[in-house]
Amino acid sequence: MKHKFRKIPVLLIAFSLSLFANAQKNTIGLSIGFGKDYNYYKDSDVKPNFIAHYDRNEVVTFGNWGSLSIGAMYAYKSAEYSLSTTKANWKNNIFGLRPALHFNVDKSKKLDIYAGTFLGIRFSKYEERIDGTAGQIHYSDKKSTFTAGYFGGASYKFIKQLSVFAEAGNDISNFRTGLQFHF
């Protein structure tokens, strides 16, 4: 009986690999982004964004020239400020949708050139502490705001399931780069 259960992980791995080998219409991307200032203090230490996205590719195809993908994105962005008696920090969680047009420029389908928009909500938290002679002042604020932007990018598949990509624009970050997993 023990020997039968040893085959289950092997079968699951084989099944997973068969999914990777077929449609390739889903993409999960992980990236690091830079830029995009949300009105932080002038000398703030703005950290890189951590971004994850999912795209469903070829939702609609437009003949030989391209296709439409629809996806979702999550990003975390933070910044800190410290000057003598003042300390402040910002934390942003951003969720949204990212439709994109993909242009057929490479017949081998290794190179993907695309442009899209981002529509989402930014949940931000701000905290500030001032240590003065009269004591300590602490202020915090939470809010959510609608956010929108645009991006353009390119990805290159090294193997059928993995690509590197870079995007530039004005949405969650001004520039981001990372890896995409296709299944």
UniProtKB/TrEMBL annotation:
InterPro entries: OMP/PagP_B-barrel
Signal listed as a keyword: yes
Keyword line: Signal
Signal peptide bounds: 1-23
Name the record gives this protein: Outer membrane beta-barrel protein
The organism of origin for this protein: Polluticaenibacter yanchengensis
Lineage: Bacteria, Pseudomonadati, Bacteroidota, Chitinophagia, Chitinophagales
